[in-house]
Amino acid sequence: MGISVNDVEITDDAVERELPHHAGAPVPLKAAVEALVVREVLLQAARNKLAAEQDALRAREASQAEDAEALVEDALIERLIELEVTSPVPTDEECETYYRKNIGQFRTGDLVEASHILFQVTPNVPLDALRAKAQEVLQQALAQPEQFAELARTYSNCTSAEVGGSLGQLTKGQTVPEFERAIFSLEAGQIAPRLVESRFGLHIVRVERRAEGRTLPFEMIREKLAEYLTEQVRVRALRQYLKILVGQANIQGVELEGAQTPLVQ
């Protein structure tokens, strides 16, 4: 069975043209198909609601570009979202409440100098054996921390092994989240007592030095925080609106999550 939205077919040619835009998705073909289906759902809703504006847009764009129809469709969808998806601006009180509850997000300047020993997970090495060896080396490092650099040169699968495992100075956002949480929780000179697991493998981690940053005052970040919270509300509202449209549409050939009851007022 082919893919269609209210009897409008999503063609193979359309999917092929859309596919390059989703090369980074876990399943590019699925992402491309879903994007086309959602676009068609929105476009049909826009045409139903904005018939008069569609004619005006088509007249305006007709002489301006070869792909005038695509520009008309994009403009219709943008106008529909503008009319149907509301994004209330948060109050100062709401912004300040978020600030207080998430105060750690507003620190700047925290810096650590860290080293690690990486046991990289590879298809050819049994994970249990790798973990056992990493645990053995961790115990050696905890018992004789002065040998950390030598252990890194001997065992680490990272290029930093050449410099004793040193990663230099790191700020927040420079490493994967699981590794960042570990290094910023340690004191200067401390080795993490447990292996740190990341997408790269198993790490033995030591912090050499750290410099504390400061918390930005609310007054300094109020405007940016309001913009961020407004965007978060808009994204949630748009997702809810799409669920409604998907739930109302007759979609064949692919399953998308729909909504059975109105979620947006």
UniProtKB/TrEMBL annotation:
<feature type="domain" description="PpiC">
    <location>
        <begin position="109"/>
        <end position="209"/>
    </location>
</feature>
<keyword id="KW-0413">Isomerase</keyword>
<dbReference type="InterPro" id="IPR023058">
    <property type="entry name" value="PPIase_PpiC_CS"/>
</dbReference>
<protein>
    <recommendedName>
        <fullName>peptidylprolyl isomerase</fullName>
        <ecNumber>5.2.1.8</ecNumber>
    </recommendedName>
</protein>
<dbReference type="InterPro" id="IPR050245">
    <property type="entry name" value="PrsA_foldase"/>
</dbReference>
<dbReference type="InterPro" id="IPR046357">
    <property type="entry name" value="PPIase_dom_sf"/>
</dbReference>
<dbReference type="GO" id="GO:0003755">
    <property type="term" value="F:peptidyl-prolyl cis-trans isomerase activity"/>
</dbReference>
<dbReference type="InterPro" id="IPR027304">
    <property type="entry name" value="Trigger_fact/SurA_dom_sf"/>
</dbReference>
<comment type="similarity">
    <text>Belongs to the PpiC/parvulin rotamase family.</text>
</comment>
<dbReference type="InterPro" id="IPR000297">
    <property type="entry name" value="PPIase_PpiC"/>
</dbReference>
<dbReference type="Pfam" id="PF00639">
    <property type="entry name" value="Rotamase"/>
</dbReference>
<keyword id="KW-0697">Rotamase</keyword>
